[in-house]
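for the recovery benchmark. tokens below, seq after
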């Protein structure tokens, strides 16, 4: 550097010229540095604003997809380390940052939709589960259950059609709650789905089947509660009296004694609810061989053939038990009930219902409203529905427990013990069902006690 007091000569003038040039370069450098600092501050402010917004949103969505809190700091540190950028580089960086930000916002929005959808589905499931009326019925540790270990994975739905008159009017022609009080089980069925899910067997039991009824706690259908008062055992009784005196628990006891099968679900359905179920799916189609002319209910279906039924007509179809032309009242009604249930299941599992949110919701709501049970809800109903959907229709068997087919002197249906035992043994062991036309001795169960057709169960001793 030169001193201004030095003698001005040519070398001095040259040094001063160089000093002024260096000063201008230094000032320009300082100005450029200040500009870079201002740009860096602006970048940090732009990064800080979306980071704060993302942090708030991330908290609301349980910190799903937003960046970590350290990311803005890391960006700032990297920015300090980076050399000065050209305007084109800055523009490109800003474009990348915007793309990343937009991507994250889209991801958060999608996460919010998923969470909302999951929450709605869960809320709907909880809502429908709450519609099912719970009642104690099952006894999965009963000594009457045979080969309990061998039944692991089987689903056995004990279904009882309760023909209480609650909600019925005089016009229905079936009596009213005041005239016919109490609980009545006019239909008893088992829907058996083995562990390998390769078939479904639905077995019906006549309401007038002669049984030996065990001692049961008395049941109040109005409150769905049991009392400490005992209904004494009765050596000879009709099956439908079990529900009348002891409710679901007593029916479960009787069925497990007869079959040796472990009931894993109890489903009680009020017949009055059939109207709303059928109406929700806009009718079902049934086939009849004869006109359904009931001496009590009147003409239900005027001619043979295929008919779409709904509402009161569907209710009378399953209730009718005094139909002209029926050989026996019980077997004619059982056949119609099986036909009806099969038609209803077919309709519910059809695309017309499964892909129609309104119809499906209406059916589930009506079903839940008319249903009470034990270990029953949306999940359990889906197990039954999905199992039946995946099975070849030819492998869905409807049958009636073997009886003599002729009422005895007491007006009861009598079980054919040998044939019935062979049927239940085949179900427990997942073996082929015996030929009902063969004598009992020829309808012997398979030689091996292990589960067949892909079952993974091991044999066990009879319990």
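predicted aa per position
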């Amino acid at each position: 550097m030169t001193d201004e007091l030095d003698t001005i000569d040519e070398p001095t003038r040259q040094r001063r010229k160089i000093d002024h040039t260096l000063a201008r370069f230094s000032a320009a450098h300082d100005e450029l540095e200040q500009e870079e600092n201002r740009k860096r501050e602006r970048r940090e402010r732009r990064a800080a604003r979306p980071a704060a917004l993302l942090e708030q949103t991330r908290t609301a969505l349980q910190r799903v997809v937003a960046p970590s809190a350290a990311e803005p700091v890391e960006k700032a540190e990297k920015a300090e380390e980076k050399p000065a950028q050209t305007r084109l580089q800055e523009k490109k960086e800003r474009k990348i940052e915007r793309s990343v930000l937009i991507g994250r916002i889209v991801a958060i929005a999608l996460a919010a939709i998923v969470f909302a959808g999951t929450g709605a589905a869960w809320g709907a499931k909880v809502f429908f589960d709450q519609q099912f009326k719970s009642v104690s019925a099952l006894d999965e540790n009963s000594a009457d259950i045979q080969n309990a270990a061998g039944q692991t994975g089987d689903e056995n739905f004990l279904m009882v059609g309760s023909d209480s008159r609650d909600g019925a009017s005089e016009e229905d022609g079936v009596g009213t709650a005041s005239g016919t009080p109490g609980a009545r089980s006019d239909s008893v069925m088992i829907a058996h789905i083995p562990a390998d899910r390769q078939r479904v067997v639905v077995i019906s039991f006549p309401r007038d089947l002669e049984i030996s009824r065990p001692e049961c706690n008395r049941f109040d259908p109005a409150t769905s509660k049991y009392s400490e008062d005992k209904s004494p055992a009765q050596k000879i009784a009709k099956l439908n009296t079990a529900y009348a005196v002891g409710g679901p628990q007593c029916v479960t006891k009787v069925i497990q004694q007869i079959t040796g099968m472990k009931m894993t679900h109890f489903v009680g359905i009020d017949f009055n609810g059939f109207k709303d179920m059928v109406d929700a799916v806009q009718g079902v189609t049934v086939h009849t061989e004869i006109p359904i002319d009931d001496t009590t209910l009147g003409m239900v279906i005027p001619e043979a053939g295929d008919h779409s039924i709904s509402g009161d007509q569907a209710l009378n179809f399953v209730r009718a038990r005094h139909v002209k032309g029926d050989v026996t009242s019980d077997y004619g009604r059982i056949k119609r009930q099986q036909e009806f249930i099969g038609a209803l299941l077919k309709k519910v599992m059809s695309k017309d219902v499964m892909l129609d949110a309104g119809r499906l919701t209406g059916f589930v709501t009506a079903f839940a409203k008319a249903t009470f049970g034990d270990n029953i809800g949306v999940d359990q109903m889906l197990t039954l529905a999905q199992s039946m959907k995946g099975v070849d229709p030819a492998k869905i068997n409807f049958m009636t427990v073997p009886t003599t087919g002729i009422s005895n002197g007491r007006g009861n249906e009598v079980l054919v013990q040998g044939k019935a035992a062979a049927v239940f043994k085949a179900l427990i062991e997942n073996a082929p069902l015996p030929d009902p036309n063969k004598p009992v001795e020829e309808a012997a169960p398979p030689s091996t006690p292990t589960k067949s057709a892909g079952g993974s169960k091991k044999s066990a001793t009879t319990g």
